[in-house]
Specification:
This protein is mostly beta strands. It folds into 3 domains: about 50-310, 4-Layer Sandwich (Deoxyribonuclease I, Chain A); about 315-405, Immunoglobulin-like, CATH 2.60.40.10; about 415-550, Lamin Tail domain (Immunoglobulin-like, Sandwich), CATH 2.60.40.1260. The protein is about 15% helix and about 30% strand.
Amino acid sequence: MRIPQASSRPSLLDRRLLAALLSLVLASCGGTEQERVDNDTLGTEQLAASVPLRLMAANITSGNLQSYDPGEGIRIFKGTKPDVVMIQEFNYGDNSATAIRTFVNNAFGTSFYYYREAGAQIPNGVISRYPIIASGEWDDTQVDNRDFAWARIDVPGPKDLWVVSVHLLTASSSVRNTEATNLVNFIKANIPTGDYLAIGGDFNTDSRSEAAFSTFSSVVTTASPYPADRNGNTNTNAGRAKPYDHVLVDSDLRAYQVATVIGGSTFSGGLVADTRVYSPIAEISPALASDSGATNMQHMGIIKDFLIPGDTTSAGVTVTSPNGGESWAGGSSQSVTWSASGVTNVKLEYTLDGSTWTVITSSTSASTGSYTWTVPSSATTAAKVRVSDASNSAVTDSSNAAFTVTTGGGGGSGTVFINEVLINEPGSDVNGEFVELVNPGSTAVSLAGWTVSDAAGLRHTFASGTSLGAGKAIVIFGGASAIPAGLTNAVAASTGSLNLSNSTETVTVKNASGTTVDTVSFSSSLTGTDGVSANRSPDASSTSTTFVLHTTLVSSRTSSPGVRASGSAF
């Protein structure tokens, strides 16, 4: 076990003084003081009782120079918002202090700290939201172009966090175990047992049964659950066949691990950040779906989240809805919700472009936790809501990711939305798949040129002259043969099929100008029942974002294309 060093550990006050002095030193060298700058901002000198901590291991360079210059990795960092990164191949520009500071500022923020080992061809390093109060490198005897980079970080609460960034050799599993043995010896000799510990990076391990994991298990936990991507794949190399990359923490920190939540998505064991399969990709904007497939990007970023005890219990706010991924109709009434502690009144604001903020209300009671808001009638995919302490703007939080505001288009007050989708057709006749759209407004909406797509591509384009009447529905079937006799408000998919997936699926409606009007992602619980549709609940409600199996609404009916769930006409 690690050797206790209680006598050498500074007190909380001493550490705060040390951090302050370090900030002054950094400022004199072009550094900046640490403060939260993203969605989880807390008030100055105020920390919540429990503090979120996101750790990331990242060897996500691309291009031909083992560098972050091409920008794909930078976008992934921006989209996933880690607090502490154990980074490999830490190269950017000419690698001068100015270039590295520019990279950190761009990818994380001007208030982040960093340590980068010197004299290495592909250096390891650490980037941190919180002050790095000590750092250095330990010799990796098996390789001559990098070492083990470590940092001691003053995270909130009574313990420090020690992190080690590693890049083990591809040579063989025995060489990697030698590296692991040497690192464990460094850790036992230098890191107090009472502090938190994380080892992260590119291990280049072919499997989780390699001896290196048994060696590491003397200081960190190597057991499951493991981080996974949107499809449940826990492997991390470019081909997604081997577990190359890891974030391993000691039992002290493991006790505080929580699910990784981004927007409306939850990853119980942490996230393998593969943008090629992440959906909806807007949750990790500005990352692009193509980023993880960039030239020479051979690894995926690995994320684990923790909720650690903070220093004190004081003021804090957290937006709970809209928190990213929602689709709200312009002109509809929606509830903005939040949680708050130590705050009397809150100020609510929204943005439609991610940068310009407009006040919803300058002050409303924080204890209510909810405010009814009339959504502006401007279509956008970049909307967010911000909640702040009305008397202290430093205590603030905004939506974790963007949400969508839809408009009916075509004039009038019509608002078109997806109401019912039959993804898993009855039997094997895929012509029976359908998507039902509803206009609950008071004016007809022209659908000419509008499109319906699934996760794989375009499935239907509405013909010129198509209109959806006020309060009416229209249904797109996979094929004309499946349209029920007498159902006049129905068309066959213009591409010849809908071809919806019976595992998970996303259906998107766009108007003639290409603006997203509504998009809904369906989990396997809504796609896996043969012949039973997924229906908005309550049925035909423009303000609801919840979908359930049709039999949950009306037990005797498996679907209701073109009519209400009860069978009555629109």
